[in-house]
Amino acid sequence: MKSKLRKFFNYKFFIYLFFFVFSFCFIVPFALLIGISFSTEQDLINSGFKIIPENFTTFAYETLFEQPKDLIVAYIVTAIYAFVPTTFGIFFEACCGYALSRDDFVYKKPIKIFLLITMFFNGGIVPSYILRTQYLGLQDNIWVYISCLGVSAMEIFIFRTFFAQLPKELSESAYLDGASEIQILIKIIAPLSKAVIATYYLLGMLNKWNDYTTTLYYVTNPKLYTLQYFMQKILQEAEQIKKLIMQMGLQLAEPPTETLKFAICVLATFPMLVLFPFFQKFFSKGVMVGSVKG
Amino acid sequence: MKNNKGGLQKRRSKYITQLPILALCVPVILYMLIFNYIPMGGVIIAFKNYTPIEGIFGSRWVGFANFDYFFKTDASSVLLKTIGYNMFFIFLNMFLSIVIALLLFEVNSKNCIKLFQTSMSLPHTISYVIVAYIVYALFAYDTGIINHFLTSIGKEPILWYNEPKYWPLILTVTQAWKGIGMGSVIYYGTLMGIDNSLFEAAALDGAGRFKQTLHVSIPALIPIICILLITNVGGVLGGDQALFYQVPRDSAALYSTTDVLSTYLQRGVTSGNLSVTSAVGLFQNVVGLVMLLITNGIISKISPENSLL
Q1: Paired residues of B60 in beta bridges
Q2: CATH number at residue A179
């Protein structure tokens, strides 16, 4: 009996141990980013990147905050890109999903087919690129971000399925009380579907926050760079960070190129990492629903 | 006859009284007309020699010359890499995610589960640009951690961003690190949904924890495994563009192992080679469509309620 107990303890113990070590592997890289950003440039040259800085300094951040214009502009553009199109996109999707959830809706079938076709065919990137640049004049224009609403047939169908489960009596009684369709959606349906709407809203925002392709294809004006593209440029092109330091008008014997890169990276990641634990439930739910329905 | 007419009138009036509901669909319809349907027509440039000056309609028809060009030049190596990477990633991630979910299922403490799950799915929220910074911190030539380790044990540092042969491994580990935490959530959720009496019955029959996993947990995962496997295989020509573009820092020296169809397409657009790129994109979409239809056919055989159509 005693040996059995010990055996039991052992196997659980190893699983816990495994997970502690394993989870650690997922957190350490973030610590590395932060550690590098607080190091001195000289230490990096001497002993390479380290998680725990040998000489702690906030020099990179100080340099950055002296002339933070580029970073702030990138932040604002990214915030607009994450917030505005997703808000409209989710609202339009919910409207369409609500209409399709109505059993008596006579236009249901043609709209369903209209949506289904977009799931199977798409023109690919080149026709969209030509459309946006040659015909809609969206190149180097803030509207190019807003034109990416992220409306997808899949999400509309998920909303429809969810709305259709809600008790019909609620919307019917509201209708008899003289509420319009849009009022029913906003006042009755949406509050009952908070979880699913919030999930896709957050997922949409996250996608936009992390997207760099729109900027890569459509934007050459540095004033319209998103954070991700801004960081990508700094990482991929060595002279980019020097240009940035020159623009800042700083006269430094040894510009903190490497630490500055990582300081920017940390500042750009920070909001997501802080917010993430609060939203993890939603993301998990989104992954579950998306995978099972897809 | 009279009845019929009444029905028709009733229905006609329904078409009119329901216009407010139809109005709710108008934004989506307009958006999709402009940004989904018009580009569908745009695929004709795959069969033309498109130049911005002549426009879509003014450009010369060239038949299948754009496809020909792609298949004669880059197709074999790019397609091989794309399919190879994607297939390998699909199976590897699925295996790792299932193992993690099964192990996590053995953890009793609610707080520990939350801690482990949150930290493991942390990489899911960050973009590949930030992942590229982490990879850079490891593999940079003068300051990278790995090169410093190599010099400290007396070996020559390696120019990682110029050596294609290491990148299949680096990319594999990177994408697994980013994906498996969130990937295991689905399987863990499925495991949580198993009726507890099944485990109790197995325990009564003398099955230990391992046997229970083998005969209760894994069979319960089979349906979701099938569905995910088939849906993922449908996107075998797609793949994560950001992984292959950002993590190797778009280093041209590494293209021999890191260039896949999605990065090829991306470079085609940014370099202005629009006709050939659109031909490749059309090829990718047609293959994707065929895969999707096959997938859907198989799913509707296995579990009809999960099929798309």
Answers
A1: B49
A2: 1.10.3720.10
Taking alpha carbons only, the member of A42, A78, A87, A77 closest to residue A60 is A42
Written as six digits, the tokens of A158 are 């998920």
Question: To the nearest 10°, the Cα dihedral for A124, A126, A131, A134?
Answer: 180
User: Could you read off the pLDDT of B245-262 as tens digits, one per residue?
Assistant: 999 988 889 999 999 999
Residues 246-285 in B contacting A (C-alpha not used; CB under 8 Å): 246, 249-250, 265-266, 268-270, 274, 277-278, 281-282, 284-285
pTM as predicted: 0.88
Residue A287 lies in a domain: no
Q: Looking at the domain assignment, is residue A126 inside a domain?
A: yes
Task: Identify whether A228 is part of a domain.
Answer: no
**A244 within domain boundaries:** no
Task: Point out the residues of chain A with pLDDT beneath 50.
Answer: 293-294
Chain A residues 193-222 within an 8 A CB cutoff of chain B? 206, 209-213, 216-217
Domain interval for residue A159: 76-218
Q: Is B211 on the interface with A (CB under 8 A)?
A: no
**How many C-beta neighbours within 10 Å does residue A146 have?**
14
Structure tokens at B67: 């496809």
Q: How many domains does chain A have?
A: 1
Q: Which of B31, B120, B137 sits opposite A32 (nearest CB)?
A: B137
Closest by alpha carbon to B37, among A182, A27, A115, A217?
A: A115
